[in-house]
Design brief:
The chain has about 200 residues and is of the alpha+beta class. It is built from eight helices and eight strands. The protein has one domain: NADH Oxidase (3-Layer(aba) Sandwich).
Length: about 200
């Protein structure tokens, strides 16, 4: 499926580049558009996901043998008995091309890096809608995604998610001792699963 470069995605990339929304520079927009187009020539998006029961603990939850202590995740899954774990990556070539671009032209490298960050989020949105949503039960919905490193969800949870999903073998995703993902343009996340009737009865 051809990736559509929209004005919204270009705006998001400019935001990653810390360009003020009030700035409208045609040359900069062309640079970002070209970066998106170039990205599509070597991007290799891959993903893996699964649904798992949640076991409530004092101050945390247990997922497939991993213990997660996070008030944010507790709130996110407060009405859930199961959750989704997912991992996605754009591939190692993206990291290599960003490094090459930064060495040749800092602006081009910055644009490519920003576009890759936007691209991985757009890719996840796409496969969630096409692959996960159809697998949900009637009346069931998926909460927003929450990634390690945000709020009080520790970066160490990245390793747990990769292990549970066997993401190293399945999509080539790994984590370094300093808890950096390889490839860099990758995402891991947790999302709760709940039923609309359960939500409505609490409203």
């Amino acid at each position: 499926m051809k990736f559509l470069i929209t004005d919204e995605l270009i705006t998001d990339a400019l935001r990653y580049m810390r360009v003020p929304s009030s700035v409208h520079d045609e040359e900069l927009i062309r640079t970002v558009t070209h970066a998106f187009e170039r990205l599509e020539t070597f991007v290799q998006p891959r993903y893996v996901w699964g649904r798992f029961p949640i076991i409530r603990l004092d101050g945390g939850i247990e997922l497939a043998g991993a213990y997660i202590y996070s008030e944010d995740i507790e709130r996110l899954t407060s009405r859930s008995s199961e959750c989704i774990l997912l991992a996605a990556t754009l591939g190692l070539e993206v990291d290599r091309q960003i490094t090459i671009s930064q060495q040749k032209n800092m602006l081009d490298g910055l644009a490519l890096d920003a576009c890759a960050s936007v691209r991985i989020d757009a890719f996840i949105d796409q496969f969630v809608k096409s692959e996960i949503y159809p697998e949900l039960h009637e009346g069931e919905f998926m909460t927003s995604r929450f990634s390690p490193g945000y709020g009080d969800l520790g970066m160490n949870v990245i390793e747990d998610i990769i292990t549970i999903l066997n993401a190293t073998k399945r999509i080539g995703l790994s984590v370094t001792r300093s808890l950096m993902m390889t490839p860099v343009k990758s995402v891991t996340a947790v999302a709760g699963l709940a039923y609309k009737s359960r939500v409505n009865c609490h409203e």
